[in-house]
Amino acid sequence: MARVGEDVTAVAMGYFGVQYRGDKHRAEAWETLRAITDRFALDDGPGGWDLTHHIDAQGYDTLVAAGYWRDATTYDRWLAGTEVAGWWDAPERLAAGVGVFREILAPGVDRFETLYAATEGLPGIGGVLDDISGQVIEHAYWGSMRDRIPRSQTDRMSPAGELRVDGDPVGGCRVVVRGHENLALIRSGQDWAGAPAEERELYLAAIEPTLSEAMDFLRDRGQRLGCYSNRYVRNVDADGTPLDTTSAISYWRSLDLLERWAESHPSHLNVFVALLSRADQVPSLRLYHEVAVMDADSQYYEYVNCHPATGLLRDAVAPA
Known about the structure:
Helix content is about 25%, strand content about 30%. The chain is of the alpha+beta class.
């Protein structure tokens, strides 16, 4: 598990997305993404970031730059800068041929956990934190994810409230979704870049298809289980070339509902069996995840020119 210094009270994770449909908008989408990542290089930008691509359930290509900040106050300073705030708030965002969104989470240090099958080159939030633990005993049993979150010692972290939307998501406009108490996020990753040919072939033939099927299930039918949004993404380089790394970025109404799916639903159990039955044959496969359970005030979701089923828009309701 990654460890954070005692001087930090909250970290920040930001998913900055560009949405487009059709090849005629591809160049504009990449130009827009570069405008976002160029701003990562400004003072107080993220300590680490990666790029991904996926096609959503409505057929839109989506590019996401995921940025990670060791300290949420550093993110706040970066966001408040004229070059960052001015770009996001500019009227040109509404006139563009692509949609953009930002989904920002700033969990307190007692509200998130990480788990890695390696101790060096950590992806995600672990790559910007201060240290890593030795092996932990809170692992390899149902419920261990919850046990690794410090707050779970005193709080069930049950959900309260609903997702609320400010603005009309139909018609190309700027819309903000307000999160509710104890919404859960998990990003789980799979990295086979360092695997020899035989391991790579086994993973891609016997394990990854089962994982992809489970991710499509959550994307298309996870709503009734409490999954607000599931993106199964492929990492890419700055030119858009696919890398040998994937991850699932998944929002849930609660940690309880995420646990219930993981422990009992056939779609996840199929992945569990496919991996565990062949784990000794793919020792080079690097797995990780990061999980956060958010209080309402530590979430911000904004969608500009995006279709109404993007991210958390689908399940948000208008204020009464």
